[in-house]
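Hi Y.,

Following your request, here is the sequence exactly as I used it, all 339 residues.
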Amino acid sequence: MPLGYEVFAGNTADVTTVEHIVETMEKRYGKSDRIWVMDRGMVSEANIDFLREGGRRYIVGTPKSMLRKFEAELLKDDWNTIRDGLEVKLCARPCDDGNASESGEDKEIFILCRSRDRSNKEEAIVQRAEQKIEERLIAMTDRCKKQRRDPMKVEREIGRLLGQNTRAAKLFDVIVEKAEEGHARIEWKKVEASRDWATLSAGCYILRTNVTDWTDEQLWKAYIQLTEAEAAFCIHKSDLKIRPIWHQKEDRVLAHIFVCFLAYVLWKTLGQMCQQAGLGNEPRRILEELGDLRIMDVVLPTRSGIDIRKRCLSKPTDHQQILLDRLKLRLPRINQTQM
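Below is the corresponding structure, written out as tokens. Let me know if you'd prefer a different format.
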């Protein structure tokens, strides 16, 4: 269940909020033996040092570039299968890391993870970008052979092309030369070493933690709970319609966010009710089914000028009634009408 929320200025970087959030949580709920889980967007060496100094435990994501230090581990076969298509393993800190001189309770371990679904997705993205770059380079090379093009202009075009397809930019080595006549000439080739690394590292990511008494599976499952936080943001933006915010005054903006937070608490409460009733933990389908129920007031005017008001409730279908019974919900005892 969500405990609370904090509101920051729109131009606040995630990485600068860590100390404030940690201190606020500990002030409100005490310094329990909690584990701080953060994605790589909130991680910096300063934040890691802050967590260590307070004796806090953490599981955090790391930049993709750190995978290079674990290339040898990627090639080994000692992976632990968590479920179909997902493998993890525990690794020690790389020997060439400048911070390798840690000891005691601050000693870190790394969790190397490899996902088949993520690998297929990343490889498809790289292949599309690679094909786009290759086709464009072939066309630009032919054009330079037929036309006297300015080398500076060609370089800018290639820079934009690679900037728009960063996933595959490292797979190409492109050189723009100035021919004897003064026009541009393009020389390019594919970098096989980069292609091999892209294939090897596809679908892989690495986590960093100072929790040394858990298994690799326990550490991964703890980190993956971040998907629930991401789902909370998604629900706020879609189902609860937290945006756009039409208010201009700060107090009204805060009130709007507070109402959305209360709605999310109700959402999670309904999700727990669904789980206890054996209906899964996703209330969206339940709300869609029960959303067809309607309550209305029928107003009957009379000649004496007095209106007769009668409240009616649509009669639930058999399927809706089953859901209500499973959730132990009872409709108001008013007139029910087939709609």
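Residues 120-199 form one domain.

Thanks again,
Q.
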